[in-house]
Amino acid sequence: KAGVTQTPRYLIKTRGQQVTLSCSPISGHRSVSWYQQTPGQGLQFLFEYFSETQRNKGNFPGRFSGRQFSNSRSEMNVSTLELGDSALYLCASSLTYSNEQFFGPGTRLTVL
Amino acid sequence: KNEVEQSPQNLTAQEGEFITINCSYSVGISALHWLQQHPGGGIVSLFMLSSGKKKHGRLIATINIQEKHSSLHITASHPRDSAVYICAVRWDTDKLIFGTGTRLQVFP
After folding, report:
1. pLDDT tens per residue, range B47-101
2. CA A43/CA A107 separation, integer angstroms
3. Lower CB density within 10 Å: C or N end of chain B?
4. A84 by DSSP, 3-state: which?
5. Are B106 and B81 in contact (CB under 8 A)?
6. B45, B97, B100 member nearest A100 (Cβ)
7. Would an 8 Å CB–CB cutoff place A60 in contact with chain B?
8. Phi/psi at A84 (nearest 5 deg)?
9. Subunit contact B94:A56, Cβ cutoff 8 A
10. Averages of pLDDT over each 10 residues, chain A, 112 residues
11. Cβ-based neighbours of A24, under 8 Å, separated by 6 or more
12. Are residues A97 and B45, on separate chains, in Cβ contact within 8 Å?
């Protein structure tokens, strides 16, 4: 069974631009969570989707948004990029929201 | 004060040593996760537990709900165990809060 895939793996943007990251969960998994990892703040929860509905949202500004499609694939969008948005963005999928999570390889975003 | 505290922050060991990493939390939780992150960023879920003890190969995880404490043990450590180990707790409608991680280096 294929693992969680994330595209793109690396991305370079400039301040003010917007970016869309994609996550394809393991087949059959209906829950997708997104996390941001930075050297200063560590791993932080962004949001969680289950069956196309956002179940939870972390403490991030409204510039960070996401959605989940009917095939459980998920996208997250960051608008008006800031230097501090440079980070590794990880998604994880699970069968449902209370099961063990399986992580993707991450998308490393650099904002110049 | 962070809701999830890990200790130690850094740990070095000789191959074959028994290793313990600790995690304390201050909130009521529904589950606790132990994660392993290798250089390059990939994260692997090692355990998810809400009570008692789980074992997988040379790894053992325990949790004491009353004391709000969990430990991850590695028996007969090996250089390939070198990684960052992260504790995360699931609380408040299933949000995840992460510890700052323990960087483990095992030397041959």
Report:
1. 999 999 999 999 999 999 999 999 999 999 999 999 999 999 987 666 788 999 9
2. 14
3. N
4. helix
5. yes
6. B45
7. no
8. -70, -5
9. yes
10. 91 97 96 93 92 91 96 96 96 87 94 96
11. A4, A5, A6, A7, A73
12. no
Closest CA to B101 of B21, B19, B13: B21
Distance separating alpha carbons of residues B42 and A55, to the nearest angstrom: 25
The residue of chain A with its CA nearest to that of B39 is: A105
Q: How far is the C-alpha of B45 from the C-alpha of A95, rounded, in Å? A: 14
Cis geometry, peptide bond prior to residue A39 (ω within 30 degrees of 0): no
Instruction: In whole angstroms, give the CA distance from residue B5 to residue A102.
Output: 23
Report the alpha-carbon angle B102-B107-B108, nearest 5: 150
Give the tokens for residue B50: 């809400």
For B86, the closest of A43, A45, A102 (CB atoms) is A43
Our CA angle for A96, A97, A101, nearest 5°, is 85
| Neighbour-count burial of A45, counting CB atoms closer than 10 A to its CB (0-12 exposed, 13-18 middle, 19+ buried) | buried
Mutation for B interface: A5, A38, A45, A50, most B CBs within 10 A: A45
